[in-house]
Specification:
Elements: H1 23-41, H2 45-56, H3 62-79, H4 86-95, H5 110-125, H6 129-139, H7 147-163, H8 167-179, H9 188-206, H10 217-233, H11 237-246, H12 256-270, H13 274-292
Helix pairs in contact: 1-2, 2-3, 3-4, 4-5, 5-6, 5-7, 6-7, 7-8, 7-9, 8-9, 10-11, 11-12, 12-13
Region (Disordered): 1-27
Organism: Wuchereria bancrofti
Protein name: CCR4-NOT transcription complex subunit 10
Length: 293
């Protein structure tokens, strides 16, 4: 896993008893399962998909077939860089209909929990934070969660709280996670990511209006730039532009170039208005030239 918000989970450790009724078939299925798991770990997703399709030929158990289909959908999404696309979301919902909106998200096993987590991650990245939270809450009700999945779900919950501008809630969640027994078995990547989240929490708490000296011009401008950046990350580019325009200094002020450069970035990257972006970038350069004179 790269991080809680970039990672996807798979369930390659299936039960051999559900693969076949004969020991020979069990052995073959187990070998294919191990090979597919190894291919997935090495990011050989095309090879992994081929092995999973081969494994499906000899499987009769609906539970096992569903698990293999879920892993196959994950491999195909990874190979096509569509992990956060509507296509992968549709594939998961087709395999696990109970995860559809409005359905009873009463998850019965770890495989369903893994699929639900991937669906929640997909929803989070696509901006559907509330949907993500609802799914994560259903995942946490499963009694058979692995340590890795429990930690991943907990980290994503913290990330969602931060994105929804609830740093105090995120802080409580982070403290609760660190105090849990399961967290002691978290992997290195998860530990690093929690450290990163806690840094973001501290920064967000420090940006609250009660801690800003609005009589100090540098602090006020710094607050404006940070808040505008958060607006853009939360999908509120228009609000960011309005705030930056409100705090835009005069042309003679050297700080004008910082605001104009920020406006150019918002128009270019978020609003896709290239002509306006170019105008503000040129204005930022003009301020710098005036200062040199």
């Amino acid at each position: 896993m790269k991080s809680a918000t970039e990672a996807s989970s798979s369930s390659f450790n299936g039960s051999s008893s559900s693969s076949s009724s004969t020991s020979s078939s069990c052995s073959t299925s187990s070998d294919i399962n191990e090979l597919s798991k190894e291919a997935f770990t090495k990011h050989h997703f095309t090879k992994c998909a081929e092995l999973l399709k081969k494994a499906l030929d000899g499987i009769k158990s609906e539970t096992e077939r569903r698990r293999l289909h879920a892993n196959l959908a994950l491999c195909e999404a990874k190979s096509k860089a569509q992990l956060f696309s509507a296509t992968y979301q549709a594939a998961l919902l087709n395999i696990f209909p109970k995860l559809k909106p409005g359905e009873d998200h009463n998850l019965e096993d770890h495989d369903e929990a893994v699929a639900a987590f991937n669906l929640a991650l997909n929803a989070f990245v696509r901006g559907n934070r509330r949907t993500c939270l609802e799914i994560l809450q259903s995942v946490m009700t499963v009694n058979t969660l692995s340590d890795t999945l429990f930690c991943a779900v907990s980290l994503l919950e913290i990330d969602v709280s931060l994105t929804l501008c609830q740093p105090k809630l995120a802080l409580k969640q982070a403290v609760k996670l660190r105090d849990s027994i399961t967290w002691r078995r978290a992997n290195v990547v998860q530990r690093d990511y929690l450290d990163c989240l806690e840094c973001r929490i501290r920064c967000r708490l420090a940006q609250t209006s009660s801690l800003i000296d609005f009589t100090s011009k540098p602090e006020l401008l710094h607050w404006c730039l940070i808040q505008s950046e958060l607006d853009v990350k939360n999908g509120n580019a228009t609000r960011a532009v309005n705030r930056l325009l409100k705090f835009r200094p005069s042309l003679q002020d050297e700080e004008r170039r910082l605001v104009d450069n920020a406006l150019g970035c918002v128009y270019a990257l978020s609003l896709k208005k290239i002509s306006l972006a170019e105008s503000y970038f040129r204005s930022a350069m003009l301020v710098k030239q005036e200062k040199r004179k």
